[in-house]
Amino acid sequence: MSTMQDSREATMVGRRSDGTLIRRPLSPHLQVYDMLQMTSALSISHRITGVAWVAGVLVMTWWLVAAAAGPSAFDAVQWFLGSFLGILLLMGVTAAAWFHTLAGIRHLAWDAGWGYDIPTVYKTGRAVLIGTAVLTALTWLMLLISW
Amino acid sequence: MSHTTSGQAPRQAQLRSPLGRVRGMGSAKSGAHHWWMQRVTSIALLPLTIWFVLSLATNAGMTHGEVLLWIGSPLNAVLLLALIGLTFHHTASGLQVIIEDYANSEWVKIASILAVKAVCWLLGIAAALAVLRIAV
Predict the structure, then answer these.
(1) I need a labelling partner for B44 at 20 to 30 A (CA). Which of A50, A117, B34, B50 fits?
(2) CA–CA separation, A38 vs A126, rounded Å?
(3) Which residues of B touch A147 (CB under 8 A)?
(4) How far is B22 from chain A (nearest CA, A)?
(5) What is the CATH number for A101?
(6) Same domain, A102 and A117
(7) How confident is the model over B39-43, as a mean pLDDT?
């Protein structure tokens, strides 16, 4: 197919059951979305940060089990968490966790029926992003002060 | 279902059976239970996770002995056990939804969900056992 002149053409590219292309209308799917708009970007980020948080859950489990296992196992996990890779991992998990937490609160508000209009969606979206940055920085400030 | 008038086919206003509507379980066979538990665990995890992260962030320099005392205190041990159970429940059900959305083949879907649940159960038990060994 030649270069599209009209973005609506993106929903007209169908396939027959034998796989050959045919021009017919399809339900709009990912091809009609601008993935750089805040609504869809924050939506998929909620999923991605949820999966990323699994890394933090694994570290928590390792830390607890090592604490119960004894001093040498505990030293190993503390050494890893204090290493460059460990700090990088913890910083990433902290940011992902704050994002997932704040975006999760936004989802709970939506579940309660609040905040569905577009101006509010953008306002709360910006609040989630700013809140993630602020709370991640504050968490690490506290951590560095107590270290 | 309305009664037929002469010459007209019977008209069904509802495709769902009355029993199905009363049970309210839908095509998922378990109603909104999975969705609802995801919300309930998230609300419970909100204060628990913030407590855990802030406790560790403000005590980053703890020695092994201090960590054992912290985990072993009754209040912390109870909150940790709640945190572990809810975290792994929320993680498993969240990952399950993602797998259900993206896995194309039924076998891959079922195998992945079972694997996720197995890992979450085992790690959850291990974490809980660690807390209990320290606290009890």
Answers:
(1) A117
(2) 9
(3) 60-61
(4) 23
(5) 1.20.1300.10
(6) yes
(7) 97
Q: Which domains, ranges and CATH numbers included, belong to chain B?
A: 32-135 (1.20.1300.10)
The distance of A5 to chain B (nearest Cα, Å) reads 31
A80 interfaces chain B, CB cutoff of 8 Å: no
Closest partner residue to A147 (CB to CB) among B50, B61, B67 is B61
User: Model confidence over B49-96: pLDDT tens digits?
Assistant: 999 999 999 988 899 999 999 999 999 999 999 999 999 999 999 999
pTM for this predicted structure:
0.84
Inter-chain contact B60–A54, Cβ cutoff 8 Å? Answer: no
Contact A57 B123 (CB under 8 A): yes
Q: Are B17 and B24 in contact (CB under 8 A)?
A: no
Residues A57-107: tens digit of each pLDDT: 999 999 999 999 999 999 999 999 999 999 999 999 999 999 999 999 999
A87 and A116 share one domain: yes
Tokens encoding B48: 């628990």
Sequence-distant (≥ 6) Cβ neighbours of residue A50 within 8 angstroms:
A100, B94, B98
8 Å CB contact of B123 and A58: yes
DSSP result, A67-113: HHH-HHHHHHHHHHHHSHHHHHHHHHHHHHHHHHHHHHHHHHHHHTT
As a whole number of Å, the end-to-end CA separation of chain B is 63
List CB contacts of A103: < 8 A, sequence separation 6 or more. Answer: A42, A45, A46, A49, A128
Measured in degrees and rounded to the nearest 5, phi and psi for residue A34 equal -85, 105
